[in-house]
Amino acid sequence: MNTAPRTAVVVGAGIVGAACAEALAVRGVRVHVVDGGRPGGGATAAGMGHVLVLDDSAAQLALTARSRTLWNDRRGGWPAAVEADPCGTIWVAADDEELAAVRAKHAAYAEQGIATEILDAAALYAHEPNLRRGLVGGLRIAADSVVYPPAATRALLDTVVVAGGRVDEARPVLRCGDGFVECADGSRLEADVVVCAAGLATPVLCAWPALVIRPKKGHLAITDRAPGFVRHQLVELGYLKSAHGGAAESVAFNVQPRATGQVLLGSSRQIDDADPGIDRAILARMVEHGIAFLPGLAALPVIRCWVGIRPSTDDHLPAIGPVPGAPRLWVAAGHEGLGITTSLGTAELLVQRLFQEATTLAWQAYDPARFVAAPAGEASHG
Q1: Closest CA relative to residue 146, chosen from 269, 41, 223, 230
Q2: Is-cis flag, bond preceding 57, omega within 30?
Q3: Measured between alpha carbons, how far is residue 122 from residues 119, 135, 291 in Å?
Q4: Which of 59, 179, 269, 273 is deepest in the core (most CB within 10 A)?
Q5: Nearest alpha carbon to residue 240 among 250, 248, 232
Q6: Tell me: the pLDDT tens digits for 64-79?
Q7: Rounded CA separation 248/238 (Å)
Q8: Which pLDDT tens digit goes with each residue over 81-119?
């Protein structure tokens, strides 16, 4: 765009869309948010709610680190319902090989100014006494946190409304184009810019098949209240290998303490599976894997299980920016399991680019133009 937008339509009221809408609204842009369901009710509601730094790639590390800073800068300003808990993360090392990986991770984070603490076995058990015996240590990242995503989404959208914007739920969208949106009720919305943050639906709505966003199905289970059973988010060192490996199905150990005193247990991945039904076999594998790290989990009643579908690009980085050939159509999608963490950083980057400002992050790694082909038909001409 040649000039800063004065009006915007944001399609998708998950946490990424809500963050983009809020970032635009606080800049004085009149924002209209449209979603076919309830705000924060899709992938956002199904997520764990972690706010953490990950280093699967340099671009992922940069986006998650910046986003975590933005979350932490706002910690005192969230409503109580967001349940922002600065519990930190411990990456658990099961053997000496994984402890070597801890040291490498510590060094890599230190180079980026990210504080971490290497734990030996004694320190690990002092922090988390319910872990199974025989583990050799871990890496503690105290600045990580956990939030309740639906409430955070609502808080972001409340800011939009206070600024004079509008949020329409249960209003399905058929198509996003270069400065316009066509809704299923026959209406057409026009604005200086359209931001499509519709997760898996983004390529279809933008008529842009070159943007491939794959479903990755995941299960979660939450226990009855057990205050203090875990004190940090706990993640095994093999988590990233599981999350981004080539196996069609995988499980990894990842648990969180919740503000309610409950324990949230993950995680599983089934690539290219968008079935919302619970797969009892993989759920059982996930729970058994969790018990292998936290034997006491076996005594905690699980009160609910559910499925979420993560929207993932093939390079595991989101698409943030204008669609090639359609300068008034922007996307913010494909965040996989990091949409909660990276929502605020995504919004900052998108708005900085829209307003043609210097960007806090190098934007090229997330630019949709890396997917080459432009959208087809009217969506590219509007």
Answers
A1: 230
A2: no
A3: 8, 10, 21
A4: 269
A5: 250
A6: 999 999 999 998 899 9
A7: 16
A8: 999 999 999 999 999 999 999 999 999 999 999 999 999
